[in-house]
Amino acid sequence: MDYKEVKRCRVCGSRKLRKYLDLGKLPLANCLLSSPKEKFKKYPLQVLFCEECSLSQLSIVVDPSILYSNYPYHSSVSSTFKRHCFEMAKSIKAMFTHPKTYDGWDGPQPNPSYGKPIENLIALDIASNDGCALEQFKANGFNVVGVEPSENLAREANLKGLRTHCEFWGEKELGWITPVDVITASNVLAHVDSVYHFLLFAKKKLRAYSNGFIVIEVPYLKNLIEDNQFDTIYHEHLSYFLLKPLVLLFDQCWFKVFKVEEHPIHGGSLRVFATPYEREADASVQAFLNLEEDLGLYSFKTYKDFSKQAERIKSDFLDALNFIKNQGKKVMGYGASAKGATLLNYCGVNSSHIQSIVDDTKEKQGKIIPGAGIPVVSGDNFDTNHPDYISIMAWNFSDELIRKTESHKLRGGKYIIPIPEVTIQ
Ligand code: DWN
Ligand code: ZN
Q1: Which residues contact ligand 1 via a Cβ below 6 A?
Q2: Which of 12, 260, 399, 410 is most buried, judging by how many CB atoms fall within 10 Å of its CB?
Q3: Among the atoms of ligand 1, which is closest to the Cα of residue 29?
Q4: DSSP H or E stretch at residue 408
Q5: Ligand 1: which of 218, 339, 342, 364 to mutate, judged by most atoms within 8 Å of the beta carbon?
Q6: Best residue among 75, 270, 337 to mutate for probing ligand 1, ranked by most atoms within 8 Å of CB
Q7: pLDDT of residue 301
């Protein structure tokens, strides 16, 4: 069987899991087809709410080797994301300064280097993709090492001189990785079933000397609910996190969450800092927990209401495309994203509505979106086909995608942005 049913919450173990969203049986969003005749499977896409810890999670786990052995997603395609990684590396670097004294310090004076930056830091990025974040940590003076399970991406990172090991993190002891000062894991914990293994393996790799810590960045369920981001629900994303289940998970792995930030990337992400060593937690931790409570994010009703929004957006998007189609106008998409594939298939959109989707990722060009059957093409197709509308399929990068299609706008072309509401501009 290439997938298994989820019977217990992966964070707290509870069996009190209640379904609140069912997007039907959909193809695997990133498993693009090489030809229209290529066979593909559809899998149930349902989200369950844990009544104990408020974790949202899919009702199944698809075999990761099917999802990630040859992964078409390249983080470095987006300059927005690159900038985001640079800022993250810069802010993390500033957190490493020599303490007043070290454990067991018996010098007559406080540590002479007190307050100065700690040099020769080592950063490990888990699921480092094509080395996008590694590059930015290197630019901030870190020594870097990556772990990436997709051969194509690990190879690309190593060719850029970014030492990357092609492994799944948390599956087995990676003894050859020496202790590091900081571990980052951006957009990966949501993809992991054995979240305890993941963190316990990370704990072993954090250096005590620098009070090492881990930085986990995940799409924030608060934004998913507030901004109708149901298209970010697909088989790669097993969990949809709030801070509450994350704090529980870290606690149970002897980590202490000491700082939390919210960042706009990918539609709204939560950045959680946690360490196995002594570190004072700041006010941000309790502030986010209070916010989640105030927003009703620990109540099942919030999620039932959200599922009605998804149905509404679905009919709005299909109505808009059918109206444009009946006018004989031409629509192309931009950004053959996983979220885009989910949206197209959930809404029943196909190549009669959107004739092709441009993507700047070379590996995606020439492929076909499974289910919707829409071909992925290169950017020059905008200028050869002159669409009347461009449907932005990666709304989290709307600004960047609209900036890159200036000529379409100058021709009087319009944009369809489907999330958080279907808008035409
Ligand atoms: O968690 C995940 C997120 C971080 O990225 C992964 N599971 C998979 C992936 O999800 P996604 O495919 O929905 O992510 P994006 O980043 O919204 O996808 C953007 C798509 O648009 C990519 O295929 C690249 C493409 N793109 C482009 O062609 N030109 C993006 C930009 C910014 C561009 O200029
Ligand atoms: Zn739970």
Answers
A1: 73, 77-78, 187, 236, 266, 335-339, 359-361, 364, 394, 396-397, 400-401, 404
A2: 260
A3: 12
A4: helix 406-410
A5: 339
A6: 337
A7: 97
Pocket-testing residue among 32, 74, 77, 83, ligand 1, by greatest number of atoms within 8 A of Cβ: 77
Q: Token digits for 117?
A: 């930056």
The predicted pLDDT at position 238 comes to: 98
Q: What are phi and psi of 386, to 5 degrees?
A: 40, 65
| CA–centroid distance, residue 240 to ligand 2 (Å) | 11
Q: What is the mean pLDDT of each run of 10 residues along the chain (425 residues)?
A: 95 98 97 94 98 98 88 90 96 91 75 88 96 96 95 95 93 80 97 95 92 97 97 98 98 97 97 95 97 98 96 97 97 98 97 98 96 97 96 96 96 97 97
Q: What values do phi and psi take at 347, rounded to 5?
A: -90, -5
- Say which ligand is closest to the CA of 229: 1
Residue 196 parent element (H or E):
helix 195-203
Nearest Cα residue to atom 32 of ligand 1: 78
DSSP string for 313-364 = HHHHHHHHHHHHHHTT--EEEE---HHHHHHHHHHT--TTT--EEE-S-GGG
Residue 9 CA to ligand 2 centre (angstroms): 4
What is the rounded CA–CA span in Å between residue 18 and residue 21? 9
pLDDT for res 111: 84
- Starting from the CA of residue 12, give the closest ligand: 2
As a whole number of angstroms, the distance between CA 10 and CA 238 comes to: 10
At residue 110, the pLDDT reads: 81
335: exposed, middle or buried (C-beta count within 10 Å: 0-12, 13-18, 19+)? buried
Distance from C-alpha of 178 to C-alpha of 272, rounded to nearest angstrom: 23
What's the pLDDT score for residue 109? Answer: 77
State residue 100's pLDDT score: 81
Could you tell me the CA-to-CA distances from 329 to 3, 236, 326 in Å, in that order? Answer: 41, 34, 8
